[in-house]
Amino acid sequence: MRVRGVGSLTDRITALRARLGADVFQKVAGDEGPGRRERIHNAPGPRWFAEDRPIRRVHGDASMFVGGLRALLLQSLHPLAMAGVAGHSGYRGDPWGRLARTSYFLAATTFGPDAEARAVIERIRSVHSRVRGRAPDGRAYSAGDPHLLEWVHIAEIDSFLRAHQRYGSRPLDQAGRDGYVADTARVARELGVPDPPRTEAALADRIAAYRPELAGTPQARSTARFLLLNPPLAIAARAPYALLAAAAVELLPWWARTPLRLPYLPVVEHTLVRAGGQVVTHGIRWVMAA
């Protein structure tokens, strides 16, 4: 027996949840998302990572939304990597297309069959071979440069891991964190990084080694303003996005904030920002589960 009004309210909540989940998925995965999801999760064949591997736990969690924003901010601090993004990625003209390509790469290599993972890796390496030019300071860059590839990789996995430890549904212990870094090293080697770090401590050391090369260029600061203040979103989506953005900034180390001219407000960040990050990641996790 159903109490009058309760069933209809439940139905409306269920429908709203499904619609919001579909909207988020479309933004993240693009128009090709359903077909790619079918191939990645349902196609037969061996996978690179077993179901119990840490990379699957991290990359399948809503905390990736916070980690992805942090990764873009951190990656922008390398002037040559930033020049390549500014000159070739089209992130301003087609930010959702770039997000869809990135999410496809992560999903295919983490969850997909070997053939799907290798196909997306080959496409990326082909694109990288054509991305080259000169940064505003006159230095030449190439997206296929192993040194730049490693910076992009370590900035990304450091961001994903830190976001997961703060906002993930099941944070990893030390063995799990080392396992995650080791898992991602497999993908990095396939992309052309010769010796990626394999433990959390080695990851921290490698990031520290890059710090003398990092700088807050005008391109980097412009990218930060675009990502944090001017995202191409509907009005209704701006409030939850602002919570994600604040959570991403809060996870950045102090040495990354100063060159990007990002504020540091410890009392607010340790209370309101972290609470907001929990709320928005819980919300994304709830709607995506539908």
Automatic annotation (TrEMBL):
PANTHER family in the record: BLR2777 PROTEIN, ER-BOUND OXYGENASE MPAB_MPAB'_RUBBER OXYGENASE CATALYTIC DOMAIN-CONTAINING PROTEIN
Protein name according to UniProt: DUF2236 domain-containing protein
Lineage: Bacteria, Bacillati, Actinomycetota, Actinomycetes, Pseudonocardiales
InterPro entries on file: MPAB/Lcp_cat_dom (IPR018713)
Provenance organism: Pseudonocardia humida
Residues covered by the ER-bound oxygenase mpaB/mpaB'/Rubber oxygenase catalytic domain: 56-275
